[in-house]
Amino acid sequence: MATVHQEESIALLKAHGLSVTGGRKDILVIFLSRKGALAHADIEKKLGARYDRVTIYRTLQSFVDKGLIHSIPTNDNSIRYALCKDECASGHHHDHHVHFVCKRCDNTYCLDSVATPSIKLPKGYSINQVEMVVSGQCPSCQ
């Protein structure tokens, strides 16, 4: 795993108030070295037998809680994760953008330049989160 990503992972962990551990660094380096979103299984596969499933799950959950990554729902009711941008903070995500799932290569991308539409709810309702997933073919697969 690249040294640049190792240094960046340490800085991000510290900036988000997380202690720097080998597992957290290794998982964060995987996110930093990939463009699209990752499933738990993708991370498990990349790490091999170094960390168990529960450790990976807890690490991902702590990253979500601290605003380091955000979750993306999928059509098969699983979850993928992607790095948050600078605006996210502990317990408060600002990932109001569209997610794109390529039906050919199965990669999931954050389309940061495409905002989710504003939604006006009836009186008495409040919005906590808006998730929008669009599927089709990515530029690489066309």
CATH topology name: Arc Repressor Mutant, subunit A
Query: How large a portion of the residues is in β-strands, by DSSP E?
Result: 15-25%
Structural class, by secondary structure, is: alpha+beta
Q: Oligomerization state of this entry? A: single chain
Q: Which strand order spans the largest sheet, edge to edge or round the barrel?
A: 1-3-2
Q: What is the CATH level 1 assignment?
A: Mainly Alpha
Mean pLDDT over all positions: 85
Give start-end ranges of low-pLDDT stretches: none
Number of DSSP strand runs: 6
Distance between the termini: 30 Å
Total of domains: 1
Structure annotation, total helices? 4
Shape: globular
- Rg calc: 16 Å
Question: Under the CATH scheme, which architecture would be assigned?
Answer: Orthogonal Bundle
Largest sheet: 3 strands, antiparallel
The named CATH superfamily:
Winged helix-like DNA-binding domain superfamily/Winged helix DNA-binding domain
SSE sequence, one letter per element: HHEHHEEEEE
